[in-house]
Amino acid sequence: MSRASLSRVASSASGVAASSSASARARAKKSTPVRASSKRDQKASHAFVVEPFHLIVGARRARRALGHRDFAEMQRVDRDGFGGGGADAIRSALERERAAKRAIERELADAEASYASDAEIRALKTKKLRLKDATTALERDLARAESARALGEGGNGKVWRARDADTGEPVAIKVEDARGTTEEESALAREYELTRAVAASDVRFFPSVHYFGRQNVMGKPSRVMVLDLLSGGSLEDLSQRVSLGTGFSRCTTARVAERLFSALEATCGARIVHGDIKPDNLLLSKPQGGDIKLVDFGEAVRFDDEYVAQIDETVPEDQWRGTLLFSSVHVDSGSKASFRDDLESAVYTLAFLRTGRLPWTRAIDVEDGDINVRELAETKRTVDSGAALLTPSGATALPNEYADDVEFFDKILRIARSLRIRERPNFETIRALAADYRARRDDPYDWDLTD
What we know:
16 helices, 3 domains, elongated, alpha+beta, Transferase(Phosphotransferase), domain 1, Phosphorylase Kinase, domain 1, 12% strand, single chain
């Protein structure tokens, strides 16, 4: 496994996509095909605008309606009325406006030379002024488009900040190149189905999906998914900002644990295994007072009868998926992902948020070549207690500041490691452990105490 595959796939404010795999595409082929025309979970009458690119996303009728209202600049760029947009489209529109401006200037010069009427000359000057304003606006927009940066990027495509054209509500738009893949092979279509399913089980813990469909985006056939924009940042980023990566307080970690375990209970109820639990995939809905949401179902699987029937098969090392720092012992050993693995990854996530590192962090960071995930599994397996999990690599004793954390991490780690592959966690017990860990404290989150 190359070092490139070891990097943490960031899920930004939108939730950035994880890379797809051959096995994921094979699973997608067997799933229920996505129908982009479904109205149950789409704002069919809404269009969504990525302004730097003059890009309009949404159902065709909504895009047409938007184009025929008051978006004159977008109409200049988007001549077909379907919102393809992009820097190249703006550049082409700018050349058209410049050419039209030059033509008007020539016509005006001819009119003045031939002593045309004052009314005709005023009309030509008005057209010239309008074209000058349009050219200036497009030059500005082209500069913005060329310097625009995506919120995130992964194997399933890029994520862009946008807004609902009707309500002004900020949203995130994930775009996947549709060339060469069918709907059944699409990783984004599969992610859409799974995200929609978990949000339907309990919307409090996941982003809502506003639209999914296929359209031209920046000159390419594409699939698009419109989601809630989670603008508060990931817990990974917040840990760096609040504590410089040295860890959150016990109360904040306990509150995150309660929220994360509730999200896992909801995914379990929807018979979905997330497959990549980590701090980067826990995002705040807004910067202050926001809710923690679990995002990025690019690696998720349906825990259905067909999947369970093949669950005892060994996964080859070259088909391993996830994030090395937070993956479970069983997954690293070659087992297929199940509910127990999401729970174990959640334990590692919480330990990382509390301490700022894990016992095997250094082994991953200093590795120059490929990492053998089977050997990593054995390294993780030796960390078999709460004290060992919270003790830095190379240290001879547990730091005193974590003495009150040991009991919680010891119990929850043992629960996760003891589960069988088909077994569901007992979330009533797990929630009780998190409540005891919180010890009736209701302190604000660490990040809400900073400016």
